[in-house]
Write a structure and sequence with these properties.
29% of the residues lie in helices and 21% in strands. The protein contains 17 helices and 22 strands. A hairpin with a 4-residue loop joins strand 13 and strand 14. The longest helix is centred in the C-terminal third of the chain and has 26 residues.
């Protein structure tokens, strides 16, 4: 052995997690109470009508939870649901005592309202997983004892409805919520007198060895501890500190669908709410988790928050986006029809019956408890009986998206067999403010019959998911899926292939449908899809709006078919949670909208109505697109109101509109022939 007397080198830092936790080379862990690397609140609201206190739930390990209850809620008002909340922090940092978690729990308790139990648990790397899961089970065991005990905590005895227990958590707390839900659903965790009624996962912290696309963002600036710096490198570090020694991110704790993870198909899940912020690096993994659960038949509601990042509720619990999140949680589980029984929810079962908050032409009502009620039939003016089935057009229904139950109604002139020249194809998306309507409504049906007969053309009228059950961009995703489905059907379905010219596809829509046509033009342009050539886009009074009202909006009378109030109502119901009317989905030229300068949108026909409050927006759209060098034709109909094609499909004005579209289609064909004559390719590659 060496006789050197030199002393060993002092331990050095192996892992440094935000300056809060340091793991040294000799296994020592040092913790700092300095959370300055994270944006913490300085002033927690003190005017919220919520009382709180700390309770020990595991004396052996010295673990506590903080109990919150609305101060002004009396027993005579009915008992409240119980929300068991686990904070985030990558299993390595944080506590319910941190100001942001405390403020968030105060807001949840006051605004849901609910009894909130915000629990601490042992942290890694001193206590690696499954320690945190064991502590979470201990919380449920404590709660089970409270539900069964005659001498329960007086706050719980007075206010808690143990039949309505919801488990909730953000980030790694959402991960804990998942594992608790699986434990209850598989019978490994018993609640006895209590019942788990739902699971709420806020941007749950899952992982896997195989990266998802969103997990490879640009590296944040050095020293940046903002939400954008919640990068995958930090999450990887926290997994190294939290997982059992030697485990990878495919460990069942991190990856619910990893190679060693138990199957979830046979596990009984309660309703699950998953919140997935758009800017979260885990966004794709969270969406994949939700999709897999839904494919197993679990009842899952996935809510996307546009423009928000990981942990936004924690970083600013008093923000407008956080307020919308609380409202989303309050409505959960919801989205039921009047014919379905109410499920255990976060609203008071003894409260007065829910009342109508929003009413869209009687076709859709949003109630105060979040319930959405839809009329069984089309309301006025869309229910008028129109007997125009004169034999000139034949039609049939099909399903283009079985997963979402979405249908398409297809039309073609009856005399197409043996025709020398195939017909153009008109794809049509109905209007309805993104919230109401169907291809089966009589007026939309009549309009499509007229298009098929008088253009003539093969017409396909597609349904799409409606808000508020499915907020945008769900409908835009469906519109794109419709075109992709059409590409395959035009070549494989004899009913279409015999009559339809795949080189002459025109994408059209009215109001909300015109909005879809614009976004499809930006996405697919003149190129189309493989062998399908999109020869033009027809935007009928497209639904474009902005925060700044135009003169035509300000001048719109209260008696108009589309009023400012109705337009605002549609936006509240349809736009992503927290978004305003400058969102890129409804304002092509808004502050956050991508530039259209380089977009090859092909030929575009824009139809505006002189009496439409959206007239100025439609005209502005056409003029700005023309200024960019786009091939855009603008036609303004005098004396007509918004959506006159869908509302009055048999009118003289609609007949003139059909003729305008017919000339546009003929012009597109001539334009295509000129390009071919000049030696340019006549079909897309």
């Amino acid at each position: 052995m060496s006789s050197s007397s030199s002393s060993p080198a002092p331990p050095h830092v192996v892992e440094d997690c935000l300056g809060i936790v340091q793991l040294l080379s000799d296994g020592t862990v040092t913790r700092s109470g300095d959370y300055s690397s994270i944006s913490l609140m300085r002033d927690v609201p003190i005017d919220l009508p919520v009382q709180w206190k700390d309770v020990v739930y595991d004396a052996g390990r010295g673990l506590r939870l903080r109990m919150y209850a609305p101060a002004n809620h009396g027993g005579e008002e009915g008992k409240l649901p119980v929300l068991v909340y686990f904070h985030g922090g990558g299993f390595c940092i944080a506590s319910f005592e941190l100001p942001n978690f405390h403020a968030g729990a105060l807001r949840l308790a006051g605004e849901l309202p609910a009894v909130v139990l915000s629990a601490d648990y042992r942290l890694a790397p001193e206590h690696r997983l499954p320690a945190a899961y064991e502590d979470a089970v201990a919380v449920f065991s404590w709660l089970r004892g409270q539900a069964a005990a005659a001498a329960a905590d007086p706050w719980l005895a007075a206010s808690a409805d143990f039949e309505r227990v919801f488990v909730c958590g953000d980030s790694c707390g959402g991960n804990i919520a998942h594992h608790l839900t699986v434990g209850c659903g598989s019978g490994d965790i018993a609640l006895d007198a209590a019942r788990l009624s739902g699971c709420v996962m806020l941007w749950p912290y899952f992982g896997g060895e195989e990266r998802m696309p969103s997990e490879a963002p640009p590296p944040p600036p050095e020293g940046d501890a903002s939400p954008s710096a919640m990068a995958i490198t930090l999450f990887d570090q926290m997994w190294r500190l939290a997982l059992p020694a030697g485990a990878t991110r495919d460990h069942p704790a991190a990856n619910p669908f990893g190679p060693e993870s138990p199957p979830l198909d046979g596990v009984a899940f309660p309703p699950v709410l998953i919140v997935d912020p758009e800017l979260d690096v885990l966004s794709d993994r969270v969406a994949d988790y939700a999709a897999r659960l839904e494919a197993m038949g679990k009842r899952v509601e996935l809510v996307k928050f546009e423009g928000q990042g990981h942990g936004f509720f924690v970083l600013d619990p008093m923000s407008e986006a956080s307020g919308e999140l609380v409202r989303v949680v309050r409505r959960f589980p919801s989205k039921r029809s009047r014919a379905q029984p109410a499920m255990a929810s976060l609203s008071d079962p003894n409260a007065p019956p829910p009342h109508v908050v929003e009413d869209c032409r009687g076709a859709l009502q949003l109630l105060s408890d979040g319930t959405v009620v839809r009329a069984a039939a089309a309301p006025p003016p869309f229910h008028v009986r129109l007997d125009i089935n004169d034999g000139r057009v034949e039609w049939k229904d099909a399903v283009y998206d079985a997963t979402h139950g979405l249908g398409v109604r297809m039309y073609r002139p009856a005399a197409t067999e043996g025709a020398e020249e195939k017909l153009p194809v008109v794809v049509y998306f109905h209007g309805g403010g993104f919230c109401i309507g169907s291809c089966t409504w009589p007026n939309f049906h009549a309009g499509c019959l007229r298009l098929a007969a008088e253009l003539p053309a093969v017409v396909l009228s597609f349904d799409y998911r409606l808000a508020p059950e499915h907020r945008l961009p769900a409908a835009h995703e469906d519109a794109a899926a419709a075109l992709i489905w059409l590409r395959d059907q035009l070549l494989s379905d004899p009913w279409l292939a015999d009559a339809a010219d795949a080189r002459k596809v025109f994408v059209s829509g009215e109001s909300a449908g015109g909005n879809f046509a614009h976004h499809l033009a930006v996405r697919f342009g003149a190129a189309g899809l493989d062998l399908v050539r999109v020869a033009g886009y027809v935007l009928l009074m497209p639904a474009f709006i902005s925060e700044r009202p135009t003169p035509s909006e300000l001048a719109a009378p209260a008696t108009a078919f589309l009023t400012r109030d109705m337009c605002d109502r549609y936006c509240r119901l349809a736009l992503p949670a927290g978004a305003d009317k400058d969102h890129p989905l409804v304002n092509p030229f808004g502050p956050a909208s991508r530039s259209l300068e380089a977009a090859d949108v092909g030929r575009v026909l824009v139809v505006a109505a002189d009496g439409d409050l959206l007239r100025d927006k439609n005209v502005e759209y056409a003029e700005r697109m023309k200024a960019m060098g786009k091939d855009v034709e603008l036609v303004v109909f005098a004396g007509e109101e918004h959506a006159f094609f869908g509302v009055k499909p048999m009118s003289a004005a609609t007949g003139e509109l059909v003729e305008v579209i017919r000339r546009f289609i003929a012009g597109a064909a001539a334009h295509h022939k000129r390009l071919a004559f000049k030696g340019m390719p006549s079909t897309t590659k």
